Amino acid sequence: MGFLRCPLSCHREKESQSRAQAQAQAQAQAQAHHLHSDSSCLHSESSNSLASQPSLPSVPSLTSQSRRHDQAITTHHHCISTLKGHSSYVFSLALAGKFLYSGSSDKEIRIWSRDPSRLETSNDNGVALGNGAVKSLVVLGDKLFSAHQDQKIRVWKVDNDSPHQKYKCMATLPTLSDRALKLFSASNYVQVRRHKKCTWVHHVDTISALALSEDGSLLYSASWDRTFKIWKTTDFRCLESAEKAHDDAINALVLSTDGIVYTGSADRKIKVWKKHEGEKKHRLVATLEKHKSAVNALALSPDGSVLYSGACDRSIIVWEKDTSSSGGHMVVAGALRGHTKAILCLAVVSDLVFSGSADKTVRVWKKGLQRSYSCLAVFEGHRGPVKCLTAAVDNYNGRSNSDDDAAYLIYSGSLDCEIKVWQLRIQCV
């Protein structure tokens, strides 16, 4: 197990099927243009996030038809390693310092060294095992938060001092004390099914996304139960729950540095939430409606001025903050087109946007002049849909990054059960 050299050429799945059967079905469903996302599929584990829908003719393309504004840029990319170890779908990735964490559909969390010169040689780099597929991971100091298909969030004590140390589960959210405090008051109960109620601190379906506030004091979770919740990262109490935030499963959640929350759903909508000073709860401030199929992924530019959304319509919509309005709402700038199947994941580093798709590729987009974008590279090599992405500046290349010569490491997890590590170099000549 570990890094294997790779040739240079190089939301919602049926998670209970065998690997061979599930991969075959996922690929077949990724090609089925007639599948639609609706609320009847919320609890059926069907592959709606892999179903590709027609593109968006009403949204103008931002992809440059010529490369005039990029004539002075050259790029080099290749797959430097393939991480093998997971025996099932790779659903989530997270970077933390010198390590990469990965979560899979077989409940396992693994850790990998990010240093290409330190190839992992042990057969035991699994650090945690939960109860349910690992859908999302975030790291805060010595805490690792994992979101699971069994409707729970688990908090693990990070210990990387001893090699192959198994992490200790510090808490499972909602905690026992949190549940007990809400148990005896009728006002704490919400309707979750036609004939079922539970306290508002519970998620009642797969938890699909996690995000941390800028200061690390709050953890946000989104779920297929159509809610998002906010938790303290110190005592793990649930502070707030946005009930019926969407009309269908929430697949993605991102936070802006100014505290704005964006949620993307299978109901085809992106909703914008904010808690104003003096208010106790977030309230809906805007609804972004341009996608014609399930929204699977969201990502924000570092300054929060640009939002990217990916959906089953094979397009990435670029939303830009309207500085002329007092509210600074997001408006459509256009769409990035190039993928041939559903967009499943997005990541942003600096002025680059990375997108992973059911077409088994990763694309790299760079903003040019006058809102135009160009596709700098297409990473090919995965044998299944690319389900998760993360990226960072490459600090291991032995060269200092500058405006004229920058290098990046991109990590992609796939339904082929592998993680690939790509190196991208961008030079201005």
Helices and strands in order, then pairings?
Blueprint (H helix, E strand, L loop, with lengths): L1 E3 L14 H12 L42 E12 L5 E7 L2 E6 L3 E6 L12 E4 L4 E7 L2 E6 L4 E5 L10 E6 L2 H7 L6 E5 L2 E4 L7 E6 L5 E6 L4 E5 L5 E5 L7 E6 L5 E5 L4 E5 L8 E6 L6 E6 L5 E6 L3 E7 L8 E8 L5 E7 L2 E6 L4 E6 L5 E7 L6 E8 L11 E10 L4 E10 L1
Antiparallel strand pairs: 1-2, 2-31, 3-4, 4-5, 5-6, 7-8, 8-9, 9-10, 11-12, 13-14, 14-15, 15-16, 17-18, 18-19, 19-20, 21-22, 22-23, 23-24, 25-26, 26-27, 27-28, 29-30, 30-31
Beta content comes to: over 45%
Number of helices: 2
- The radius of gyration is 21 Å
Low-confidence stretches: 1-47, 65-70
Distance between the termini: 40 Å
- Rounded mean pLDDT is 85
Shape: globular
Strand order of the largest sheet: 1-2-31-30-29
Proportion in helices: under 10%
Give me the secondary-structure category.
Answer: mainly beta
Count of individual beta strands: 31
- Largest sheet data: 5 strands, antiparallel
Summarize, please.
4% of the residues lie in helices and 46% in strands. Strand 30 (405-414) and strand 31 form a beta hairpin.
Describe the structure.
This protein is mainly beta. Helices cover 4% and strands 46% of the residues. The strands form 8 sheets. Strands 1-2-31-30-29 form a 5-stranded antiparallel beta sheet, with no helix packed on it. A 4-stranded antiparallel beta sheet has the order 3-4-5-6, with no helix packed on it. Strands 7-8-9-10 form a 4-stranded antiparallel beta sheet, with no helix packed on it. A hairpin with a 5-residue loop joins strand 27 (362-367) and strand 28 (373-379).
